[in-house]
Amino acid sequence: MNTERGFTLIEALVAAALLGLGILGATTLAMHSLNAGVASHQQITALALASNAVECWRSGSTLCPASATLSASRESLSSTTLNGTVYNVRSAVTPTAYAKLQSIQVTVNWRPTTNSASGVTDNPMAQGSGQLVISTRNATAPTFVPSSSP
Amino acid sequence: MVTLLVLLASMVGLFTARAVWTERLASNHSVWNVQAQYTAEAALETALAMLEAPLSEPAPTFWNSHEASQCATGFTGLQWQCRGLSLDSAWDTRGHSVQVHVMRDVVLAPHVAVVLAEARHTANHAAAQVQQSLYMPTIAPIGVANKAAALLTQGCVSEATSGSTRFCAPNATQGSCSGSGQNVGTAIHSLFAPDTNGDGLISDAEQQACLNVSASSLQGGTLVTPTTALPTPNPVNCSTAVWSSVFGATTPAQIQALSQAQALKGLSASTSPTRTVYWIDSPNEWTQSLGSASAPVLLVFSATACASQCPRISPSTKIVGTVFLDTQCQDARAALWHSGTVTGQVALASGLPSLQAGSQLNWLANHRQAFDWPWPSGTDAQRVQRVRGSWKSGS
User: N or C: which terminal CB in chain A sees fewer CB atoms within 10 Å?
Assistant: First the structure.
């Protein structure tokens, strides 16, 4: 008489299903984490680009995409690709109710780069798209350069 | 074994997810804080533009009031005058609440305003603060004192009783008026003396006749008048030469506004710091002793106070600092005046006939300290300018 006991087929199938579910859950979690990490990185990169643009406008540097004037709204658009993501930086400088005050708004949009032929994302690590808007103001009152401050 | 592996993988996944979630939160906070910072900076820049715009709120009336609630931390002394600034409603602050405080020290630096802007986004838990100091055209530079005399007039001077007054003009290097040979500086400087003989020049005799003060009153002090004839001061269009000699480009309205600001803050001779500027419209006799050698004061008896005759200073009263009488080029308004004891300088826009017995006028080199605020050379005192190195930020 055979008295040895073992796994039945059904038990084995249930165990495999549980294992599969666990692996699927872990994989899904890992993918979500990866996407969230990439999204954070994209957002920080966009923030840096926006800050650069604001400071460039404020400095009045000729290296900025276009020189700002107080008489009319001016816009500039530049594009940068970093780690498989395209960042479009749109800067707008507009006059305000005060003659010597200008409003600066920088909008950064980003999306993954794609293969022009297939339309497929080049870099599988670069997922999703997003937008960041930063706005501030700048007055043209000069900084006095004294020999000593009171 | 397999279950253990699954559990292990799940744990790793969970910890990874938590780490990434934390990073995501940090990333979002970075964005919110940067926007809060830019909003605070925008508020500061807007305030600056508003303060500079001549027709907007800050114009002359801006410093006419004080709002204690607008004094930021660290700006709570009696000398700090504070105002809130309402920014233009057209501005989209992107959900931030914005506050701008403007503060100035009405004793030590009334021409320097500290602007502090705060932006706060409650839902995002983001806040930022920026601060900048500005030179404000609330007063003007007074220039170099080139009329160093105990008494500065625009006309002739005489004593009610010969030898009964004292004009002390010590050489700055010799200090005190007491002691023989100390009184060697200019006792009286007049910007006008009549050319009685019509030769176009002011002779010594004409000078002596105009500044008719006995030698015992001068105690060795010297007299100064123009050497050439000048037009007689005209009450209808009174020259501001004496005012300009003392106050430079600062206007009477600016001095009056500063006096009002110090009064508004409750400053007086007994507070700390003490009040330094007094604009007096009352015709009543002045009886309060004020000032010290280290903290001189300014008393301006206005044209209103001097409408009929300038109020005299009581004989027992001692003033250390500058006393100005706005007599509008009319000698009669200063006639029979008594100075009490003034250590510093007395200046008036006319002559001073019949100065009363017991009046004592002593020269003090730093008599303008109460209104001589530092303006770095080259500053344009007519407009708002940032003070270099004064920008600060914090969250």
Answer: N
Predicted confidence at residue A69, as pLDDT, reads 41
Nearest to B150 by CA among B84, B81, B40, B224: B224
pLDDT score of A125: 53
Residues 6+ apart with CB under 8 A from A124: none
CB contact residues (below 8 A), chain B span 189-228, against chain A: none
CA nearest to B264, candidates B386, B82, B122:
B82
Pick B23's closest partner by Cβ from A40, A99, A103.
A40
pLDDT grade for A68, boundaries at 50, 70 and 90: very low
> Can you read off the two tokens belonging to residue B155?
């006309």
Residue A2 falls within a domain, yes or no?
no
> In 3D, which of B319, B373, B374 has the Cα closest to residue B347?
B319
CB contact residues (below 8 A), chain A span 15-44, against chain B: 15, 18-19, 22-23, 25-26, 29-30, 32-34, 36-37, 39-40, 43-44
For range B288-300, the mean pLDDT: 95
Has residue A1 been placed in a domain?
no
Strand A101-112 relative to strand A85-95: parallel, antiparallel, unpaired?
antiparallel
**Cβ within 8 Å of residue B81, ≥6 positions away:** B63, B66, B103, B104, B105, B106, B261, B264, B265
In degrees, to the nearest 5, what angle opens at C-alpha B44 toward C-alphas A42 and B80? 140
Interfacial A residues in 95-134 facing B (CB < 8 Å): 96-101, 103, 132-134
Could you read off the pLDDT of A33-61 as tens digits, one per residue? 888 888 888 999 999 999 988 888 887 77
Interhelix angle B2-52/A9-59, nearest 10 degrees: 20
Query: Does the structure show a pLDDT above 90 at B382?
Result: no
Total tally of structural domains belonging to chain A? 1
What's the average model confidence in pLDDT over B48-66?
71
The DSSP H or E segment spanning A90 is strand A85-95
Provide CB contacts within 8 A for A66, sequence distance 6+.
A74, A75, A76
What are the phi and psi torsion angles at B162 (to 5°)? -55, 130
CB B144 within 8 A of CB B151: no
Domain residue limits at A16: 9-117+126-139
- Using one digit for the tens of pLDDT, what is the confidence trace for A75-91? 777 888 888 889 999 88
> CB under 8 Å to B347, separation ≥6 — which residues?
B151, B152, B153, B242, B243, B245, B246, B322, B323, B324, B325
User: Which residues have a Cβ under 8 Å from the Cβ of B256 and sit 6 or more positions away?
Assistant: B279, B300, B302
Interface test with B, best of A135, A140, A148 (most B CBs within 10 A): A135
